[in-house]
Here is the input.
Amino acid sequence: MARADLLFLKNFKKSKATVFGFGLKSVILISKVFNLAFAGILLFSACNSEQGGKVSVEPDKITFTEHIAPIIYKNCVFCHRPEGIAPFSLVTYRNVYRKKKTIAEVVSKGIMPPWPADPSYSHFVGERILTEDEKLLIKYWAQNGAKKGPEEAMPELPTFPEGSFLGKPDLTLWLDSVVLDAHSLDRFLTIKIPFEIPKDTFVRAVEFVPGKDNLVHHMNGHLLNYKEQDKKNVFDGSRIADLQSPKYSEEFQLLKMYNDDGTEPERVHSAVNYLPGVYPTLYPEGLGGFRLSKIGAFVANDIHYGPSHKNSVDRSHINVFYSRKPPDRPTFELMLGTNGQTEIVPPLVVPPNRVVTCRTKGVVPEDISVLTINPHMHLLGTSFKAFGLTVTGDTIPLIRIKRWDFNWQYFYTFKNPVKLPKGTMIIVEGVFDNTANNPFNPFDPPRTISDKNRTMKTSDEMFQFIITWVPYQKGDENINMETFLEQVTPTTSEQ
Ligand code: HEC
Here is the structure.
């Protein structure tokens, strides 16, 4: 059966699916395999109305319980529920009805659900994207009276695990309380989370759980592993550093993170990352993971607290999940661009009133399998693209972000590891807009902004691409990186 036919089934769900002898479930499963872009093509060909699109239901028959709630429950309530990280809930008909115009607008523009990566370029674990059909359903519903529909058609609200997405942790470590005053502005702190455990072990995953008011905007953490003889008291020193213009060495000093003799302990980069609304990374057993020594400290490096409107206290914690054995295939990290292993051309210095495109390139020294990537820029960034160019001239797409959004910087894990053969050139392109037209420009009037201060402050710029990889093994392309998500992703009663 042709692809278009399958998608036709998807868009016209129940009625047509049975005609072709497919159960609804298998139809959805099959169509998931194919690129969402095909859905767009199909709709376009079905498009014959002046409103610029046609959906499978007549516009005035669209109701909340039958058509809209399933979309909202699948794509929005993870964040938009009373305990979620979004500022308002979209759980009930009234919730959604009240916001219908804004909702129709933000979904049609692709602002919500927040997923900056272009799905016509590459696919990742946990991606949240609405099809054109779904966007139109919402739009026409909002324009045609936003009817409620029959009560009995209302899908069940998905349930979300509390405390952890990964299960029962082996070790829970609490960060010191952070006190935020009413009307406080953004704060960037470094927080040390020291520990001592009975013996050295291995870690499969680490999960950051923000305090209940969701004040943490993002955090990037690494792990320090000490040798027993090198560190007398890991609990010594301050736990929180709040330096205005942080230099990493000063923080290291203040938080007493050096070994007793002043040397640096072993550091595991990106041991734990957090961004609101994003599942923690968990690779299939044996892939990734790292050593955790008896004495160590996690360091929430540059943990970002958003502005607070009332006096509040944040108490976040970290869940650590052990693995029974050392990782079969430890992961490696490659960092391109700012603070990384490759040069930026032209250097990242953006004069006022200019739009500058920067590139950075690196060659892959052996066959590798890319698991996760993290594009990073600050407020001048407007678009980002990374791809591999093989020695035979083939292009391997990694990620394209057409509209960069500083607030939604994911660590993107590929659905299947992506093989980059030896000699592949990884090419990364970022566009930086330092004109007054850029609404996120931190300065008015614009001033020269660069990555030269190495402060990593939001108002300075960065251009970075981090790749987490393992040496390639035959069959890596078939590893399903999404297995864990299937366990925890809420399913609505529709599917
Ligand atoms: C990953 C978490 C997340 C998901 C998923 C998500 N949102 Fe949001 N949403 C937010 C946050 C946080 C804000 C407030 C800050 C912002 O605008 O970025 C927001 C803001 C909004 C706003 C207000 C925008 C404005 O300009 O006032 C609307 C409307 C909205 N979301 C609708 C939706 C809808 C509809 C969906 C699903 C199709 C959705 N969101 C999915 C996190 C999320």
